[in-house]
Amino acid sequence: MNNAEINTIYAKTRRIDGNKKMRSRIIMKNLKGIIGGTILIIIVLLAILGPSLYKVDPNSTNITNRLKPPALFGGCMEHPFGTDELGRDILSRIMQGARVSLMVSVSAVLISILFGVPLGMIAGYYGGVIDNVLMRIGDIQLSIPFLVLAIAIVAVLGPSLVNVVIILGVTGWVQFARLVRANTMKIKGQEFILAAKAMGSSSFRIFYSHILRNILSTIIVLATFQLALLIIVESSLSFLGLGVPLPTASWGSMINDGRNYLQMAWWLSTIPGCMITLIVLGANLFGDWLRDSFDPHLKHQG
Questions:
Q1: Which residue has the higher pLDDT, 246 or 34?
Q2: Virtual torsion, Cα 58, 61, 64, 69, nearest 10 deg
Q3: CB–CB of 87/66 below 8 Å?
Q4: Beta bridge partners of 83
Q5: DSSP state, residue 68
Q6: pTM of the model
Q7: Which tens digits make up the pLDDT trace of 179-208?
Q8: DSSP string covering 200-241
Q9: How far is the CA of 24 from the CAs of 20, 28, 241, 296, in angstroms?
Q10: Which domains does the chain carry?
Q11: I need a surface site. Which of 43, 202, 217, 293 has the fewest CB within 10 A?
């Protein structure tokens, strides 16, 4: 076998190895999206359809059934996830908590988008004094830890579902505004924007038809990560007694209620804690997959 044949075989081997590596990267990227999306879909279905299929009142107390373990650990199938210190069914409260967490986080993300995206486009497009004022306001807010700011505002206004949604939504606008501003500054000097200006398009039309459509994928990715963050914040507020008021079940308040029973009834805090971990993991995996799918640089690297 001469050198030319050896080089040909070596080149084919490298090409095959490269194709295998590329396929494995694509599979891993898609696997993140599949796992994350599946987790999110299951929890969303649990929140929406669960109460209609598993018709047990989450606030119904029965002292005779208090602290029953899950069915897999010696409990009964009547209460698959066991009961709490007041005899309330854990599974039904998990479903109610899932509905509360999703309602609060999704609503807060939509409010953040509603405020942050237009302000970010205005700051990035016009620049100057408007940009400086909006970004300095954002810097002041970012200098205060997000959770501390939310706790302070909730402590003043009082705990309620509406207050929590509004506070988390308003305090989360800065992330969207800064991201949208940066992308708008990149886009506004491109030829299609200059052509739209030359044709007499209004600023609103340029914002909606040209800028927003080009940065929509970036907004969706950030919204997915913000969803995970706000679920943690809402659970933290509920854990401290500043979130959704009782008797409405929330995963954070369920963890707090189970602190005094960790040695004798571990499931009271462990199950809602696992639910928070799962939904945050699912949202982050799905967000990573969206980022990899939408980012052309990452696509090229893959």
A1: 34
A2: 30
A3: yes
A4: 89
A5: P
A6: 0.81
A7: 999 888 888 877 777 787 778 777 778 877
A8: T--HHHIIIIIIIHHHHHHHHHHHHHHHHHHHHHHHHHHHTT
A9: 6, 6, 46, 18
A10: 3-301 (1.10.3720.10)
A11: 202
